Amino acid sequence: MSQFDTSELTLNMGPQHPSTHGVLRVVLRLDGERVVGCDIVIGYLHRGIEKLCEHRDWAQIVLITDRMDYVAAASNNLGYVETVEKLMSLEVPRRARYIRTILAELQRIASHCLWLGTHAMDLGAMTVFLYAFRERELVLDLFEEYCGARLTYNSMRIGGLPLDIPPGWGAKVRRFCDILETKVPEYEELLTHNRIWRDRTTGIGVIDGDDAVAIGLTGPALRGSGVPRDVRKDEPYAAYSEFEFSVPIGAAGDTYDRYLVRIEEFHQSIRIIRQALDGLPEGPILGKVPRLLKPPAGETYHAIESPKGELGYFIVSDGKAHTPYRFRVRPPSFCNLQALPRLVTGHLVSDVVALIGSIDIVLGEVDR
Amino acid sequence: MTHTYLVPLLKILVLLNAVLVSVTFMTLLERKVIAWVQVRLGPMRVGPYGSLQPIADAIKLLLKEDITPVRADRFVFTLAPIVSMVPALIAFAVIPFDREATFFGYQVPLVIADVNVGLLYLVSITSIGVYGIILAGYASNSKFPLLSGLRASAQLISYEIAITMMLVSVVVMAGTLSMTGLVDAQYNARVWYVFVQPLAFVILFIGGLAETNRAPFDLPEAEQELTGGYHTEYSGMRFALFFLAEYANMIVVSGVAATLFFGGWLRPFPNVAALWILDYIPGWMWFLLKTFVFLYVFIWIRATLPRYRYDQLMRLGWKVLIPLAIANLVVTAVLKVLL
Amino acid sequence: MLESLVFYTLAALIIGFGVLVVTTRNPVHCVLCLVANFLCVAMIFVLLAAEFLAMIQILVYAGGIVVLYLFVVMLVNLRRPPDARMDGRRQTRFGFVLVALLLTEVSAILVYSAAHPSSLVAVAPQRPAVGNAETIGMLLYTDYLVPFELASMLLLVAMVGAIVLARKEA
Amino acid sequence: MTPITPYHYLVLSAALFAIGVLGVMVRRNIIIILMSIELMLNAVNINLAAFSYQLHNAAGQVFAIFVVAVAAAEAAVGLGIILAFYRNKETLNIDDMNIMRW
Questions:
Q1: Contact at CB, A7 and C169, closer than 8 angstroms
Q2: How far apart are CA A29 and CA A9, in angstroms?
Q3: Is C3 an 8 Å CB contact of chain A?
Q4: Torsion angle of C-alpha atoms A56, A58, A60, A64, degrees rounded to 10
Q5: How do strand A326-330 and strand A309-317 relate by DSSP bridges?
Q6: Chain A residue closest to C168 (CA)?
Q7: If you compute the radius of gyration of chain B from its CA atoms, what whole number of angstroms results?
């Protein structure tokens, strides 16, 4: 009887849509307002970064990596320089590693602020957006003072750092940590126990740990499902092995848990930054790096925990050219985005925006 | 002749202008209040502290190109903003601002039409307002507006039931449908109805939020989901009309709440003679003050709360508000008969 | 004088919108004309001192029933190409004959009764106080309680029926 | 102009009723046929209200309210049937509705 009853409506969300966080295009098949199918169309921001990197010399690539996850440029820099250091077996001075950690954690805070603001905005809580951006602004100021740029920092060098921290910068970072510690409860007051927020996020886009691993989720999206995987803990890089911090995990694997995980990461980042500032050693900031970078022939994969998940670089060097032979990025946003069709099916249109926000993507990184 | 035709006409003229002006300045108020909540300044460029911003906005919107999509139903597309604006304006006809005021020696009641079915009139007029949204959604011939139109009509019809149920319990208390009569009843009962019918007031307010498509029930125009909803395809003055209608509806709901539950033009404690000092403030000032408080709360809520989801909204309406309203009505009626 | 003016204007509008409902091809426009027609009829009720009825007319008819029609028309239109909405004519000749017969009958009755005024119609048409909600309420809950309850039963049955009909079968 | 008498209302009502009948006969779209029936019900309501006014008796209005209730019930069930039919047959043409069951 109901054989004609396939009243599916195809709704094209994006690439110009307020909640797709850039130029993501989601083609939804709707039954009423319920999503029965979802196709993701990407590539609107493709700039050929991987190919481009094969035609730049090793030092120039740092600058290009800024343009992938442009809201977490320092993390991208860090991942790249560490991969090359691993390839060349370079020793990085301890002070440089500490400062890198501070920068990476500040970047995590900035990225999470942006995520929180836009995620809350997608669900209609417009004030959190401006509150979160207010704190992000402070991070950007700190970065500006450190390297002169506010978005694309180009803040690391192979073998160390281009600049030492300016005098008094450490104190400012400490002050920022104090401020943020009072502001995070402010966000939580507006959201965490808000009935509407909980109704909108609990039970939405549930994915259990095994499935999350199978689908390749990483970062807070994976930890929200209760898998305690964090590259900082499991395969420590920079100076993470020297600090104490915990890896927050969720239980239900829904949007609310992913939200809680990220909120807790604010606190953990503050903890790491404080420890790093306390133990900041003296010394050089740049190791012994040859004038002409020419890594030996070989290949290597190295991953770091970017704010969005596991950011990995796979670089092949043929040992002859001054450029990588092959350059490949494992971007967390791209891999996490694969979970979206699975997460949204069965939910409503309103949940689609919640879920896009909840897996925290940046299109610059998805498309590269 | 003067009294029968001229005075009402003048009243209509004055009220329409006052409403339109206050509606435009509502946009400024909203932007300012939300800005303050969000620790920013809001509009500051046009006029002192941005006070002339609405005028600049109006000029901008008037001068903008009025685009009609090619595949749209042109007639309905033009009609829809008008249909949403007109009910919002004519609803003001029965809202009493004061019992009467003296102008040039004339005693003029400050209500355009004190009809004996005033409350019913309000309910029916607001029920017409839904057409604007549905028609806009249909006429745009685009999917986001269409979804929005469907959402809006379901939402408005569901919340109308709760509101009407609740209004009935107030009417049971007062024994009249006339708006002026409702205020008089509160005067005679020596109490604002909000203290007798707190539940009814809460339901009216929540329902009012939903009826005016305000946050957290602004699903039909959810920018983040439906890219603006039913007015996605609109531009220029037609777009502005939808917004003006929304703000005018907010003022209507606030005015109704003030009249029904907060004694309209009555000063606080109207029967306590010791507070005679309050009488120096004219009644219409009290009314406007009360209305303004509600408008402020509307904006405050918008700045604070996330948005409901469609199914949650329907659940709230049908499974919470309507049963509560019916229970409230039954209890009110029983008590009224017993006491 | 004014009353005549208002009446003739409203009557013209009612007839005009009525004709449009029947003749317009686009169903959505038909529904719009229907709403306009109902609003004019509501104003006729006001003219007849039946304010309560007028409000019910707007609230239930214009704000409720016709929204339902609009909904269905929109849902149905969605899935069809625009040209499929076009609506041919049927039974035209028979329809007009029927209408002509009807009008003849009515006008015959009118002419006859104008010639023989009955005692019923002779009551002076001054403005009576029957329009208000109180009188109707009293009548509804005393003299016409049984029809009232029957009407509510009818609505309940209709509601159940509509749900059963509209529900998708699993 | 002559004062408005009940005859005026009766003529108006008759005309509206006739339009409704015409709609039922002429149109093919079942939704519009239902709408024409609503027109006829309204014509009846005008009559009821006019007589109620003329006779000083609110009973006419009470019956008009019953008519509205019946119209609501009719619309709900009628449109439900139409939707169910449309889902199965993909048509709204009344001439295609010529079987009692499917």
A1: no
A2: 6
A3: no
A4: 80
A5: antiparallel
A6: A2
A7: 21
Distance from CA of A2 to the nearest CA of C (A): 7
Interface residue A126 vs chain B (CB under 8 A):
yes
Strands across the sheet containing A298-306: A298-306, A309-317, A326-330
Phi, psi of B177 (to 5 degrees): -105, -5
Residue B7 has pLDDT above 50, yes or no: yes
User: Could you state, in order of their start, the residue ranges of all structural domains in chain B?
Assistant: 56-338
Joined together, the tokens standing for residue C160 give 């159940």
Q: Above 80 in pLDDT, residue A96?
A: yes
Nearest CA to A117 out of A103, A135, A104 is that of: A135
Closest in C41, C64, C130 to D42, CB measured: C41
**Nearest partner of A67 among A85, A46, A82, judged by Cα:** A46
Distances (CA, A) of C20 to B79, B308, C102, D18: 16, 40, 20, 13
Mean pLDDT of chain B: 82
Q: Do chains B and D touch (3 or more CB pairs under 8 A)?
A: no
Chain-centre distance for alpha carbon B240: 17
H-assigned helices in chain B: 7-37, 53-63, 74-90, 118-139, 143-174, 179-189, 193-196, 198-211, 223-226, 236-261, 283-304, 310-315, 322-338
Q: How far apart are CA D11 and CA D19, in angstroms?
A: 12
Domains of chain D: 28-96 (1.10.287.3510)
Whether residue B37 is predicted with pLDDT greater than 50 in this model: the reply is yes
Task: Look up residue B204 and give its two tokens.
Answer: 């009216």
**Residues linked to residue A306 through DSSP beta bridges, in sequence order:** A309
Q: Is the pLDDT of residue B104 over 80?
A: no
CATH number of residue A281's parent domain? 1.10.645.10
pLDDT of D67 strictly over 50: yes
Note the ipTM here.
0.77
Interchain CB contact of D44 with C (< 8 Å): no
Q: What is the DSSP letter of C121?
A: T
Domain ranges of chain C: 2-115, 132-170
Contact state of B124 with C70 under an 8 Å Cβ cutoff: no
| Domain covering C2-115, topology | Four Helix Bundle (Hemerythrin (Met), subunit A) (1.20.120)
The 10 Å Cβ neighbour count of residue B196 is: 17
H or E element in which residue D48 lies = helix D30-55
Considering its fold, how many domains does chain A have in total?
1
Instruction: State the pTM of this model.
Output: 0.82
Q: Do the strands A326-330 and B98-103 form a parallel or antiparallel pair, or are they unpaired?
A: unpaired
A348, A354, A358, A359 alpha-carbon torsion, rounded to 10°: 60
Query: How far, in Å, are A331, B126, B151, D41, D69 from residue C59 at the CA level?
Result: 57, 9, 20, 16, 12
Per the DSSP assignment, residues forming a β-bridge with A316 are: A299, A326
Range of the domain at A142: 2-367
**Non-local CB neighbours of A171 within 8 Å, separated by 6+ positions:** none
**Helix (H/G/I), strand (E/B), else coil: D68:** helix
CA dihedral A80, A82, A84, A88 (to 10 degrees): 180
Q: Which tens digit of pLDDT belongs to each residue from A173-217? A: 889 989 888 888 888 888 888 888 888 888 888 888 888 888 888
User: Which positions in chain C touch D14 (Cβ < 8 Å)?
Assistant: 102-103, 106-107
**Residues whose CB falls within 8 Å of the CB of residue A335, separated by 6 or more in sequence, listed in order:** A216, A217, A218, A309, A310
CB pair distance less than 8 Å for A11 and B144: yes
